From TrEMBL, chains A, B:
Name this polypeptide is given: Sugar/nucleoside kinase (Ribokinase family)
Gene3D superfamilies for the chain: 3.40.1190.20
GO cellular component: cytosol
UniProt keyword Transcription regulation present: no
Family annotation (SUPFAM superfamilies): Ribokinase-like
Length: 307, 307
């Protein structure tokens, strides 16, 4: 069972009401891989980095079973860099600097030894890059999960709609679901998006949890109430990594199993926000993950015995 | 088993993106009584109305087992009137007119036949009025639930803190929990509020569900995802009515049973928002309530079988 992860590997520099991170490792594919590596191996990473990306970070991911054959290293260029500042509510942020660097002309190449991967997750990237990956897969993966963002809806909607037709699960946040569908009600938005290609839709609502829609079914998973959200960066990608990692581990892509996968993703995301960047999720143990998932069971479990 | 409900009975006039209500019946005690009457009887209503309040509304509540002995009728005065306008997100609203009328000098009187009531809910009113009710109860009810709002934190915090010391369950929204505690994190806010008197705290988050805190335990109930929220007015009071109605019916005030009561409250609130005012909850059937509660089970239920 293998999982292919496509996305960014980056430098982040983050300011929150709690402090400043300095220049740390980030990127969608980084968070996805760290989260998923707790459940599945090998992970086939597809990304691009510059000569300034630390070898120690690559070694650390390799040690967790993440293959780097599909990660292009452009020795003389710089890694994608993003810096941002969060407001007090931790749900809104300003981007301060976005230097695409190596990402500007990223042409992903799927190595031969990645072919036959049964699970594929397309992290947030241009729809053209996402489509290029799909075109290179000789055999359609059993499950294709896609993330995207409002920016691509504004500048590349036609391409985005083409990719949408080819994926099984779309993950967006509530604002993006509204923008993509033109519907304010998330239920109506979901109904419309489920006609655009994906059979499953996950709407992420940050601290307000996540919704999974499929046919006429809906499932809701809360976010774990925490003393403090220290840094939300990467929480959505960590959620995605836990979600697809659990599916790849259990090899069951039914709606029922996706519910559990969403709880697993929520548990992983709840670790991510406890520290800056990948600090917490790279150190989390299996016991901690199980304990956190049990907390989710306690959080939502109730007995019903109506007379 | 009887339940005493203290709160307003009012005229509301509401504008939402979906339409205008005209002058309709509202008020916290009205919504609480309609919701709770599906579970418990008698309900001992304590409120004040003017001569302009329709007899048909009083008769309708009486027919549902709501006693009116504690509702003062001031023939020559006008009923409390509120009008407001909701924004597109349905979570924010502007008050257009607030005419206190009979509410301005409301002195609640608990009739002798209300004494011995085992459940008491203090709807949102001045802390002085809430305290006056508590002072009149010859025997402390088994469970006292209290609602309040940010306005009383601003103008009557000392009185509010005194009432808080005497109640078992406090219900507030997320902004009010933050204001009352001075903590941004809802987990920290809850910890602090649970030292102020109440043993249980419910934080209502509107379309984002509700949290129940008790000692070191936390429970989360989502709001039902709906095609449209037509009118949120009274949803919090309807939630409260379903909550305390279910507790009064089952006579079980354990944390475990409160979880179920919160689901029942959420189900009742999900009906409330489907139409203007009390239109939907006064017509809801037991079968519809059961079906909606089952939808909540489906919404949050998942299997966990971690290897």
């Amino acid at each position: 069972m293998s999982l292919t992860v496509v996305g960014t590997m980056a430098f982040d520099e983050i300011e929150t009401p709690f402090g400043k991170s300095g220049k740390i490792i980030g990127g969608s594919a980084t968070f996805i891989a760290w989260a998923a590596s707790n459940f599945v191996s090998p992970i086939n990473q597809v990304s691009v980095i510059g000569g300034d990306f630390p070898q120690s970070e690559i070694d650390a991911l390799k040690a967790k079973g993440v293959a780097m054959d599909g990660v292009q290293v452009k020795k003389d260029e710089k890694t994608f860099y993003w810096s941002g500042k969060y407001h007090m509510d931790m749900n809104t942020r300003d981007s301060l600097v976005t230097d695409l660097n190596v990402l500007a002309d990223f042409q992903p190449v799927i190595p031969e030894n990645y072919q036959g991967s049964e699970f594929l997750i397309l992290g947030n990237l241009t729809p053209q890059v996402q489509m290029s990956v799909l075109d290179q897969m000789k055999e359609r993966p059993k499950l294709i999960v896609m993330d995207t963002m409002n920016f691509w809806m504004e500048v590349a909607m036609d391409d985005l709609l083409k990719v949408l037709k080819k994926v099984d699960v779309l993950m967006v946040n509530d604002g993006e679901a509204r923008q993509l569908s033109g519907e304010y009600s998330l239920v109506k938005a979901a109904r419309k998006i489920l006609t655009m290609g994906p059979r499953f839709l996950i709407i992420k609502k940050g601290e307000h949890g996540a919704l999974l829609f499929h046919e006429n079914h809906v499932f809701f998973a809360p976010a774990m109430p925490l003393d403090d959200v220290y840094d939300p960066t990467g929480a959505g990608d960590t959620f995605a990594g836990g979600f697809i990692g659990y599916l790849a581990k259990t090899k069951d892509i039914s709606f029922e199993n996706m519910k559990t996968a969403i709880i697993v993703g929520s548990a992983m995301a709840s670790f991510c926000v406890e520290k800056f960047g990948t600090e917490r999720i790279r150190a989390v143990s299996k016991d901690e993950i199980h304990a956190r998932i049990n907390q989710f069971v306690q959080l939502v479990n109730f007995d019903i015995d109506l007379v």
